[in-house]
Amino acid sequence: MKLTATIQQQTRKWFGSRMPVGDKVRLNQNSSYIWPTKSGYMLSVIVILMLVGATNYQNNLAFLLTFLLVGVGLVTIIYTYKNLQNIEFCEGQPTELFAKQSGVISITLNSYNHENHASIGIGWDSGYKKGVANLIYVDVASHGLTSVNLTFIPEKRGQQELPRMMVSSVFPFGWFRTWAYFGLARKVLVYPHPIEPPQRFEVSGGDEMESEQGKKSVGNEDFYGLKSYQAGESLSRIDWKSFARERGLHVREFASVQGNELSFRWEEFEGFPEEARVSFLTYMVLQASHQNLAYSLSIPGQHIGFDEGDVHRKKCLTSLALFNSTGMG
Amino acid sequence: MNAQSLTQQQLVSRPLPLKEIIVAQQLVLFPLYFFIPFWIILLNLLVSGTVFWASQKNEFRVPRWFKVAITTAAVLGVFIAFRKISGRDAGVALISAMYGLKILETYKLRDAHLLLNLGFFMLVAGFLFNQDPLIAVYQFVPVIALLNAYTSLYRVNTDDKSGFSLRSILSSLGKYLLLAIPLMLILFVFFPRLAGPLWRMPGSSEAVSGISDTMSPGEISSLQLFDKIAFRATFESSPPNENDLYWRVLSLDKFDGMAWTREGANPLNQIPLTEQQIKFDYTITMEETQRNFLISLDRPVKTQGRSFILEDFTVYSPFRIIDRLRYSMQSAPNLEIGTRLSSPKKEFYLSLPEGNEMTKNWSIVEREKYSDDRAFINSVLTRINQQEYFYTLSPPSFDEDIVDNFWLGAQRGFCEHYASALVFIARAAGIPARVVVGYQGGEKNPLSDYWIVRYANAHAWTELWFEGEGWVRLDPTAAIAEERVESELLSDYSQRLSLFDEFSVVNLDDLGMLKQIEYWVDQMNTNWNDWVLDFNRQRQSNLLSKLGLSGIKPQQMIGIIFVAISVFVLVIAIRSFRKRDVLSPYDREFTKLLSKLNKALGVELPKNIGPYKLLNIISQSSLEDKSKYKNLLESYIQYRYAEKPSSANNRRKVLTSFKRLNGYFS
Lengths: 329, 666
Fold this sequence. Notes:
The complex is a heterodimer. Chain A is of the alpha+beta class. Chain A has 2 domains: 13-190, Immunoglobulin-like; 210-328, no CATH class. Chain A has helices spanning 2-14, 38-56, 60-84, 210-213, 240-244, 274-290, 310-322; strands at residues 21-22, 24-26, 32-36, 87-91, 103-111, 117-124, 136-140, 145-152, 158-160, 165-169, 176-184, 188-190, 224-228, 250-254, 262-265, 295-299, 302-307. Chain A is elongated and about 90 Å long. Chain A starts with a helix and ends in a 7-residue tail after the last helix. The model of chain A is unreliable at 201-222 (pLDDT under 50). By secondary structure, chain B is α+β, with helices and mostly antiparallel strands. Chain B folds into 3 domains: 8-164; 229-270 and 277-510, no CATH class; 585-665, no CATH class. Chain B contains 24 helices and 19 strands. The two termini of chain B are 38 Å apart.
């Protein structure tokens, strides 16, 4: 079992080991492959049956049709392969990505031979399971750009390389599958995975955390408050615990802090592992910016002063994302 | 910006393009519809219609019991109609019905693939019935429909109907066929053929007319099939005189009072052929007869392949002729045969059944008047010539004593009556005799060097045995009107027709142009037969030896196929993968505009200038008609940088205004 797994891994590595990598990628013929599909095999059996029939009945029209089909099949190898070539792939508009959360990477496809490329499947090579790649299929128009949104769940925060990409197509006739690999050179910035800090200052005084971390309690009483849920707000922010206690739907929020600006400090979560602290702070930054509050962030070696707005938010998230990210293996 | 997209799951599980699939399926079945029972056609159309209707109504699914019931009914129906489900006709009817019903079981992508792949096989089934040039051309229609159905399985953007117009289908799929045709020809010429079939299939139920192996002159004959072609003959050198064109098929030597049949004959051991004999080499392309006898020019001396000459000088093939067949032969018309006849044989050729006593007596009495057999037979022929013996295609039919009734009664009949009567008279007079059936004459195609022989030329004559001479051919029908054999090309028609008082006489010579077209069509058919339908192992090796590849082995032929196809495919591949940046026509026009503006403005604009910048420069320049440029460049920008691909119509507009503007400068 282990041996086959190793062989599989090695084979996968070999496929696409010469793939093109860049910001704008055109496929090369060193990492493009083609192989018959099940339908292709089925058709070849039918061709053999037709040949037997033609020979048996000495029927030259049957021979001609069979040979025409063989000819179409051979030409199809070229055209199936060609359908995948001559497309330029590049990364589209970047979107915010958080570690361990489902995000979107947009890929732009552009036909640079100005021909239509129908039914092009594109996706992550890592999504390849049980012989079926989880690809998204689009028709690439002869003119203009075509873009695809791919779901991407980053493993870690920081500057991350994208996994290699796979493109595949069986167009036009589904007799052959051609596929290829390429890599996008540009790294994407992944913000940390936001985790809600432990809740210890709730009115009810939940006891779940106290046994472990009671001593290390930080923050102030009115750090959090509950606000009635308004339709349209994100479900992830609903305080399910209070819902379970039959107090109705509430949304966790920073309690309003009149003139008292928020400062998110690394030291507040002393005793927690580094990654947890980063995640807690990320959560708080997101929460505060969602409520359009001003806040400051201080992490070891870096202090970002009180401010609000998208630029500030981005700055804070970036520094959290990159904090010690090199040491993260 | 986001184009229509589908996940793998969606692509596999979305509704199938049933319209395209059903169209392809029906186009595949269409040629078969001429040869299968009508109810199967109805069933197929009904089922396809139902499935298509059901697909339009999402909630409706054809219930399972219905499918089982209809399939069972179809199998039973075929069995009842044909009393069997094997054999060509029943088999094809069955697979046509099954293939039509397959659409009921087509839900998934793989079902659709099976259905479409089988379509190619079904096309072959159609060729079992019909191999006309027309059907060969027609086959491209279902092939394109099938290919189109495959592509519609995978096309993501199904809203854009522009890809589904007939024109775009033809232009996108036509290239596959155009490139496939040279490959097809390579394979067709070089693919090794077998000499015979792998196994014999039971023949068709269709009755084939022509020469039958019994002859009963009392019944009305089947000479109505005038125009159907029986065979074509091409002589290597100059053909024999037309009145020597006796094409021998069968000899009939047993008479039961009503019908002549043939007793089996043994293969001939040796042919007493001498160098001085006049010999003719020729090739015959005969249509299917469902029988074993080959056609040869009287008298065959050399035959081809597995066929052989029998003692009665007919040519026998171990296989029934179920396809159009081509073979070469040699004949020596003046060959003396059967000079020595053993007494049991002599007795056999003299045997006569009871009945027809009047003719028997007449013959014996008449024979007494002459010194030898020859003189007696001559007197009989003279009688035919000088007495009121008529040639007619609609003679009275008789139930008994058919020879008496003809010879001494009605005196009207056609070749079979005359041949039958002469053999009867000869036998009664002690002269061994037999009937020979085959064809006489033929028309020469003036455009080419071959003879067409039709069913209308079917003929019966006699062979009488004279001491010292062997079997001698005598044609009593020719005695009616001597001109018959000597007359022109269309002797058969004009001769026969002019003798009928019942029919108006049509002189086919007057149909000059029509006849010309007929010959032309026939020539085309002949070429089609020669080069396509009859391209068998022998023709293949002939062609290959003409190409300087004589004696080539099948392995070498496969080798040639591989090399030729590899080269061809490689050439297409290289042509399609040669990397080059294609400037779109719009960008090309833009560059052109730049260089024109350079001249007009007298400045050197940077080559990589974009349309935005150019717009600025123009607005500040001294050019007239700035709005014109502005409009054009704005639409160009929209086309070039828009997130949504602009419509084909818009693009065309951009291009034409570019061209107009560039033309304005020059």
